[in-house]
Write a structure and sequence with these properties.
The chain is mainly α. It has 2 domains: 38 residues; 100 residues, no CATH class. It has a 3-stranded antiparallel beta sheet, with no helix packed on it. Helix 1 runs antiparallel to helix 2, helix 1 packs across helix 4 and helix 3 crosses helix 4. The radius of gyration is 17 Å and the shape is globular. The chain starts with a strand and ends in a 10-residue tail after the last helix. The structure holds zinc ion. Zinc ion (ZN) binds next to loops.
């Protein structure tokens, strides 16, 4: 029976003994104990605000490269519980706007439309959140 879940890839393990990283994705982020899973009542807008702030700060924590990955994994798990609700991250919102309207004009740096991929959108959002501002949507 699984006792813990990777906070990034959701891989579960039956024991933590001898593990120094996730056997699936290799992160050394501490796994979540399944006994700590809880149900919380919260307004979706409040949750969205928390996630976007976390996304912003995680994007600035360059010394912890898995931090932003963790926030996106967490947002994905939360959104999966309510797929009918608006997205929880700024990166997803920018991607949705581009999908619906093609080119989205903002005062934020944007990659060329032909490079529009999830990876590019996330990298651009990271640039925006960290103030990189080089507009290339690429990580430094
Ligand atoms: Zn993992």
């Amino acid at each position: 029976m699984a006792i813990a879940r990777c906070c990034l890839c959701e891989h579960t393990v039956e024991s933590l003994e001898g593990l120094t990283c996730c056997p699936n994705c290799g992160t050394d982020y501490p796994p979540n104990l399944l006994t700590d899973d809880v149900t919380v009542q919260i307004n979706w807008g409040d949750l969205r605000a928390l996630v976007i702030w976390a996304e912003r700060w995680a994007g600035q924590a360059k010394q912890y490269p898995d931090m932003l990955r963790f926030v996106y994994a967490l947002a994905k798990r939360l959104r999966r519980q309510h797929p009918d609700r608006i997205v929880l991250t700024l990166a997803e919102e920018i991607e949705e706007l581009r999908r619906e309207y093609g080119r989205v004009e903002t005062n934020l740096p944007q990659p060329p439309p032909e490079r529009l991929t999830v990876v590019d959108a996330l990298a651009e959002a990271e640039d925006i959140l960290t103030g990189d501002g080089d507009g290339d949507g690429r990580r430094l």
